[in-house]
Amino acid sequence: MRFNAILLTTMQYWYNHNYNAKGKLNHNSNILLTFYKLQGFSCSNMAHNPRLSYCWRDVGATDNLAELSKLDENRILIELKARYLNDEIYTYVGDILIAVNPLKDLHIYGKKTALAYKNAKLSEQPPHIYATASHVYKCMLGVEYDADPHSQCIVISGESGAGKTESTKLVVKQIIELCNGNTQLEQQILQVNPLLEAFGNAKTVINENSSRFGKYIQLLFHSGKVVGAKISEYLLEKSRVVHQNAGDANFHIFNYMFAGCSEEQRQTFKLGSRENYRYTKSCDQTADATFYQNKFEQLQNAMDLVGFSEEEQDDLLAVLSGVLSVGNVDFADKVSSERVGVSQVDDLAAAAHLFGVKPTDLQECLTRLTNSTRGEQIIINFSRTQAEDARDAVAKVIYGRLFSWIVNKINQRLSPDQRSIDQLEIGILDIFGFENFASNSFEQACINLANEHLQYFFNEHIFSLEQEEYKSEGIKWSHISYSDNQPLLDLFLKKMGILALLDEESHFPQGTDASFVDKLNKNLSSHECYKKQRAARTPRFAIQHYAGHVTYDVKNWLEKNRDTIPPSLMSMLKQSSNLLLRTIFKGNITRTGTLALQNRTRKSVTAKQPIRPSTSAPSNSKKLTVGTQFKNSLQELIRQMSKANPHFIRCLKPNASRLAGEFDDKYILSQVS
Ligand SMILES: Nc1ncnc2c1ncn2[C@@H]1O[C@H](COP(=O)(O)OP(=O)(O)OP(=O)(O)O)[C@@H](O)[C@H]1O
């Protein structure tokens, strides 16, 4: 230690006499860095030393890492760290913007900054998310690089808490700023976020405002002005309504309601407090009541502005309160072949009242299944566990449909008055990052499949298409090899791939999770990315993804894939006296990914279509499984994005911890690689 201290003092002395008048080091600072590293000084020790921070500043002086003569993971790490410690969170690598989440307010998003980036060229100002937004907008107009006007898209990726949603909001805000407008439509677009966050975001151990769904926002333009917008949502985590892991919370809306509803609303909607409900009582909560009250007020304002009527807002609160009440319904063990009894009659009555249905009908749906086969009625009485599952299924299906209805309603409001062929768009994708937990289920498989698609899309644009362009223009370059994940996409999507086999087993009456895994083992064991697992209590299989090895536990996959709503429940809700419930169960809510914004007859990018697009929107005649719907919506998304010029923003989290903003070398390296 002493030896190190002496060395450090000597180096500091040497350093202080070796930087020039402009504050730049006269030597290659890497030598100094390497030297320090060899001496075992931690990077943070060095950063907190005010003298040595000069050295760091010099290391991070390049704001486009592509300009460095040698670039490897370690060098990226050193550069990003030096910049981060200097509060320079944005760095380019070629056209890609890297954003390291500062986890504190840097005061870099004010009006002044927005204006500074408005007219500047990309290379004229330091890297910033506003610069990327302005660049993308100008590319769309065709004023940057003298290219033709063309639609653009921005893919924002990164793990949970890395800053994707904040970046999305900043991009949208800056683009609206660039349009010079303050129209009602633009204000509505800005208000969409508080609305979506209330219903689709929740606190997790990683992020206090974590988006529990993926979204693609398409801003539509005519003559440089916003004329409409469209939002597509992907895979809302409905299970959070009925269950949250330790340290997590339910969707924000419930906290907003508990804190923000007036006494009159509480009475009307029979609303208790957080501790009174099974679905919310164990939720972790960090903010105080005033915070949630303000959020509730903001939400109401956003709903007014976006155009939700008073009746719709009341119906919405009634349904949400009903979801909480139905969760409190308990069941007594059944006696022989009798039906299970309901032990919380008041909660059942309250839920039925709020859902606008008869208590006896609701009880029927929760305690037994009635099937009609060839004119014969078969009644299956539920066990206590089955009744509890049915209760939770009601809560999930209602919440899921409510969310889709909200997105649909927003889309109706924001859709352009008229479509014209010279409309252009900027799409912004804020989607869940790759996931690998201690236990991974069907949801993780879908999320990781989405990330494989995006990785393929990224590879296509960054490596494959770029090299094709060099070739066609006769530019000399040394071939860059990259790992092509097409085989993995095939493993999931081809005719006898994982999703097809899951569908096959889901349609087979005797199918089980175990028989599904048997089928996978039989058909896919020879695939390079498929890893058969030893027999265990929960059947499992593993996949070698581009981002790592993931083991999947197959529990309730067939059920999750089928996502069936019992006919009796469906017909009860279709006849509800609550207009909103009637609408969402009767109406034909456009499902995610079936959007068909016919992209303006612009010349399309020469991109190879990564995956053949689905030929048509899913037909309503046969209910598609969740896996197939998700596959279709991903393919539709990729098709939409392939028509535009892509830009990439990669968000990085400095540290695994939720609150700390320190830069952890190992952690960031794992994200960079
Ligand atoms: N540019 C920024 N400046 C300051 N703080 C930021 C910035 N970006 C993100 N944060 C902070 O980090 C938190 C997490 O960011 P965000 O919700 O955008 O992450 P995410 O990648 O969208 O996560 P998830 O996938 O869980 O939704 C924010 O609530 C905010 O506190």
Automatic annotation (TrEMBL):
The UniProt entry lists the main location of this chain as other
Q: Where in the cell is it found?
A: Cell projection; Cytoplasm, Cytoskeleton
Q: Can the keyword tRNA processing be found in this entry's annotation?
A: no
A GO biological process of this protein is: regulation of actin filament length
Q: Name one Pfam family in it.
A: Myosin_head
Q: Where does ATP bind?
A: 158-165
Q: Where is the signal peptide?
A: none
The Myosin motor domain extends over 60-673
InterPro entries, alphabetically? Kinesin_motor_dom_sf (IPR036961), Myosin-III_kinase_activity (IPR052409), Myosin_head_motor_dom-like (IPR001609), P-loop_NTPase (IPR027417)
Keywords assigned by UniProt, alphabetized: Actin-binding, ATP-binding, Cell projection, Cytoplasm, Cytoskeleton, Motor protein, Myosin, Nucleotide-binding, Repeat
GO molecular function per UniProt: actin binding; ATP binding; microfilament motor activity; protein serine/threonine kinase activity
Regions of compositional bias (Polar residues) in chain numbering:
606-625
Q: Which family does it belong to?
A: Belongs to the TRAFAC class myosin-kinesin ATPase superfamily. Myosin family.
Q: What is this protein called?
A: Myosin motor domain-containing protein
> What phylogenetic lineage does the species belong to?
Eukaryota, Metazoa, Spiralia, Lophotrochozoa, Bryozoa
